[in-house]
Amino acid sequence: MEQFKECKYPEITNELPMILYFEIDNRTMVDKPRKGSLHAYFTLMRPGNCIMSALGVFTGAVVASGLEFINYPFQIILASLAALLVTGGGNALNDYYDKDVDKKNHPERPIASGAIKPTSAFYFACMLFTIGIIFSFFVNVFCILVAIINSILLILYEKDLKAKGLIGNIAIAYLVSSIFLFGGAAVNSLFITILLVLTSFFATLGREIIKDVEDVEGDIGRRTLPMVIGKKNSNYAASIFILGAISLSPLPYYLFSLFTSFLYIIIVLLADAIFIYAIVISFSKPKEASRMTKVGMFVALVAFLVGGLVR
Fold first, then answer.
1. Distance (Å, rounded) from C-alpha 92 to C-alpha 18?
2. Burial category of 152 from C-beta neighbours within 10 Å (exposed 0-12, middle 13-18, buried 19 and up)
3. What are the start and end residues of each CATH 1.10.357.140 domain in the chain?
């Protein structure tokens, strides 16, 4: 999907998702949108992240209901739009709070380039959050709760949590994984997605810690896990979380018979191999390990999607 990029702080979406954030380079064909243009606001939302959030909702719905997802077209569409809009709000808010840093690191972004005023971006983010939550009202009560909770958490993350190290990592891991819970709730099969949610949570948490190891020299003022227990111990902690994700991945096939297609096992074993490779290199090449963990997460997403459809 678009070109991946690393940065000091996680880009909310994604993986920010209201719920999902993937650190995707969402620069469009023109680096500096015209001042106040629709293009500038569209760029501010980071459309790649928004689309990935909607895809995450669809994946959660498919895992929860299999081919029966076709019986819930309006619920899935509305839930996907809710995720897309709240993700866009999170991304706009991210640019608002990072406007000073972005003048140096990302001068092409709408606020940093002067295409959008900071106050306009803030109100735009609030509008997206509000409309996204309104869409969730037409799905069900649980989706309303998730949309509201995740919107609030995105605001808290930008204001405070992203400077608090492990707490911020846990917040991101929840935001990423809850998108699948949101999709399952849209088709009234909430608990079937739990394994996918847990797998995503552990993989994301491990990756966030690896990223903190990578950025430890520049994280002065942030109480990240490597700053507290050291880089080596942090890598061990990240490895444990990623191994947790690996250990959960075969269960939908072998233990719970959620997926019956052997194709799921083939794809998920590929994802597990990528995760293991990331663990091995994390002690010497944290940047590469972070990138490979992201690749493994995408392959695992494909595995769950295939497992849900082919059964």
1. 11
2. exposed
3. 1-189
Report the SS3 class of residue 217.
helix
Q: Please give the biggest Cα pair distance in the chain.
A: 55
Q: Report the Cα 244 to chain-centroid distance in Å.
A: 18
Stated pTM of the model? 0.82
Distances 182 to 52, 77, 144, 192 between C-alpha atoms, Å: 14, 12, 10, 12
Distance CA 209, CA 120 (A): 33
**Which CATH fold would you assign to the domain 202-311?**
Four Helix Bundle (Hemerythrin (Met), subunit A) (1.20.120)
For the chain, 311 residues long, the average pLDDT of each consecutive 10-residue run is 41 42 40 70 91 93 93 96 96 90 82 91 96 97 96 94 88 94 93 91 95 74 81 94 96 83 94 97 92 93 92 74
Give the list of residues 6+ apart from residue 44 with CB closer than 8 angstroms, or none: 88, 91, 92, 95, 109, 110, 111, 116, 121, 124
Q: Which residues contact residue 262 at a Cβ distance below 8 angstroms, ignoring those fewer than 6 apart?
A: 253
Closest CA to 145 of 172, 185, 200, 174: 185
CB atoms within 10 A of CB 259: 26
Which amino acid belongs to residue 70?
A: I
For residues 34 and 121, give the distance between their C-alpha atoms in angstroms, rounded to a whole number: 15
- Rounded to a whole number of angstroms, the CA Rg of the chain reads 19
* CA distance linking residue 173 with residue 78, whole number of Å: 24
pLDDT in tens, 54-77: 999 999 999 999 999 999 999 999
> DSSP letter string over 130-173?
HHHHHHHTTT-HHHHHHHHHHHHHHHHHHHTGGGSTHHHHHHHH
Q: How many residues are listed for the chain in this entry?
A: 311
Architecture in CATH of 1-189: Orthogonal Bundle (1.10)
